[in-house]
Amino acid sequence: MNDFILVINSGSSSLKFAVLAQRGQDVILEGIAQRLGSADASIDFKFNNKKESHLLEVGSHQGALARIKSWFDQHPDVTQNLIGIGHRVVHGGETFSHSVIIDDNTVTAIEACSSLAPLHNPANVKGIKACHTLFPTLPQVAVFDTAFHQTLQQVQYLYPIPMHFYRDQTLRKYGFHGTSYRYISQALGHLDRNTLQQGIVVAHLGNGASVCAIQNTESVDTSMGLTPLDGLMMGTRSGSIDPMILSFMAKSEEKSLDECLNILNKESGLLGISELSNDCRTLEDAMKAGDERAKLALDMFCSHTAKNIASCATSLNSFEHLVFTGGIGENSVYVRAQVCKSLAIFGIKLDQQANTSLTRGQANLISKGSAEQSVWVIPTNEELMIALDTINLIQD
Ligand code: ADP
């Protein structure tokens, strides 16, 4: 009997899923349902190195999960080993500082956090409720993006606005990508036990991007805030900007607040500056072909990342390690080189050769031996953390 965990990441219009075995080490099944809520919603399964795609008759979260359930019905060899379901939940507010087994009270509490993540939490709850109906005997666990950052001190998490906004509405910095940061902290600890007492800054650079300062395995500061719009420039998000820009945008183009926020969330960042793409790889190709604006967008991204790393590092007692992760952090030689160049003032020295010749799928040290900080590239694995939390909680 193996311990298989179904991991569900239910987003606003997509639902990613995976079945992990051997305490998360083996990926048995993975897939994604996309364009949920539209007429051409589809679902992909990858099993035994074979990919199959289907249009979804019912293009909702429930429809996608019902299709996943019928896949399990056709694969009893997998289903008989399933012992639990782990859900990624975006916002746990101040209620959740750890992963929890889901019961009715948990669902109510996740719903109560929906005002803080109106696009994400309702989709997470849909996934949880559908799984409860389709797999009534399997225990479910919620793993929160925000939980790892609940160790932040008030001096870091409060915004300098009137206190009643925090008292009455818990408006504060929460931070995201917490499951990734927890994974990286543990992975670094496995490589070098000394890191468990040291100061680390992790840059999780993907389409969404943030940085986190970790001291003694706890988050002490992070760049995302009340929402994932805060912090550094991202694929389509602006990151932190002068809030007065909203007022100018609204007045000059007669836009509503929601329309302006949509611009900051969906039309800004790498896409807004390059006017070409939000995708780092596409921009690097364009830059190599001489596109000046693609270069400007990438250089701004690198500069914002370096500034956020430097800012977060001020919350550490000491700064021994810098880790790059996420799709851009793990793959972009250019971004890592530019970010480290801007951080040379801290004593960071990149080994150019190591930066260009990484071994994929494992941790790589890319700094010079003489440098004050070790610089690492470590592939993140949020699904593994969700599977492990699920196993640990349901077998407790
Ligand atoms: P998210 O999970 O936030 O959607 P990912 O962590 O998957 O994002 O990262 C996606 C980003 O990684 C994209 O901008 C993509 O272009 C970038 N990326 C992936 N591979 C490469 C590569 N080889 N070189 C540069 N950027 C890459």
Give descriptors for this structure.
396 residues, alpha/beta, eight-stranded mixed sheet, six-stranded mixed sheet, 16 helices, 14 strands, 39% helix, binds adenosine-5'-diphosphate
Sheet with the most strands, sense and barrel status = 8 strands, mixed
- Following the backbone from N to C, one meets helices and strands in this order, namely EEEEEHHEEHHEHHHEEEHHHHHEHHHEEH
Distance between the first and last residues' Cα: 18 Å
Strand content: 15-25%
- Sheet/helix structural class: alpha/beta
Strand order in the largest sheet: 5-4-3-2-1-6-8-7
Overall, the morphology is globular
Please give the number of β-strands.
14
Name the helicity range. 25-40%
* Rg of Cα set: 21 Å
Number of helices: 16
| Low-confidence blocks of residues | none
The averaged pLDDT comes out at 95
Ligand list = adenosine-5'-diphosphate
Protein model, in words:
There is one protein chain. The protein has 396 residues and is of the alpha/beta class. Helix content is 39%, strand content 20%. It has 16 helices and 14 strands. A hairpin with a 4-residue loop joins β2 (15-21) and β3 (26-34). α11 crosses α12 (292-313). The two termini are 18 Å apart.
